[in-house]
TrEMBL record:
Designated name of the protein: Class I SAM-dependent methyltransferase
A Gene Ontology molecular function term of the record: methyltransferase activity
Any single GO BP term: methylation
Keywords (A to Z) from UniProt: Methyltransferase, Transferase
Parts forming coiled coils: none
UniProt KW Transferase keyword: yes
Entry keyword RNA-binding: no
Length: 199
């Protein structure tokens, strides 16, 4: 089970329009299922940093960190960046995030200056996650700048699989959320987590 503290902290009902699109929150349950599967298959490398490109309220950074993965999130929206930082502070205080790195930075995840400001190289990330937000440009950046064998996880509600030049499609996880969200009173729809690797 996901920590109840994580479920309580992140409502699925929060949406926000930003300059780069609409923030639609990822389902913690679906992403947790995907992470467990991908960790068991050694697809996500625990020894390499994880990036949530377009991290919104910080939920995936918090989830990855709570599972022992050093995690960074980049968000362009000022309000969401502040919310994500606040959420991580609260989760540390609750003991959900302990010693594992969990960092949030405001910036453009396709811009090299963002990584300079963060004091980390884009090439350092072993796994990069995105939820259908500027994902084509991110895929181009991974194909151009990331190290070989970098994993790109794309979470989508769309049944149509994307193909990206320079990345190899490994497989797709079709997952259903097992929790009802009291804030919207509906079951969260099925989600697809697609796994790509830079060749």
């Amino acid at each position: 089970m996901i920590s109840e503290k994580l479920l309580d902290k992140f409502s699925m009902g929060y949406l926000k329009e930003t300059d780069t699109g609409i923030f639609i929150p990822s389902s913690l349950d679906i992403i947790r299922q995907a992470f467990i599967h991908l960790l068991s298959k050694d697809i996500i490398d625990l020894d390499k940093p994880f990036l949530d490109a377009g991290c919104g309220d910080g939920r995936i950074v918090a989830l990855a960190s709570s599972m022992g993965i050093a995690s960074w999130g980049i968000e362009s929206d000022e309000e969401l960046t502040a919310l994500a930082k606040h959420n991580l502070i609260n989760l540390r205080a609750l003991g959900v995030i302990k010693e594992t790195t969990a960092m949030i930075h405001r910036g453009n995840f396709c811009d090299n200056k963002t990584y300079q400001d963060m004091n980390i190289e884009f090439t350092d990330f072993g796994t990069i996650y995105n939820y259908d937000n500027n994902h084509e440009n991110l895929a181009k950046k991974i194909a151009k700048d990331a190290k070989p064998k970098t994993i790109y996880l794309l979470y989508s509600g769309d049944e149509v699989k994307e193909d990206f030049s320079g990345l190899i499609f490994l497989h797709e996880l079709a997952l259903a959320n097992r929790f009802k969200d009291a804030s919207i009173g509906l079951e969260v729809p099925q989600g697809f987590v697609r796994v790509y690797i830079k060749g």
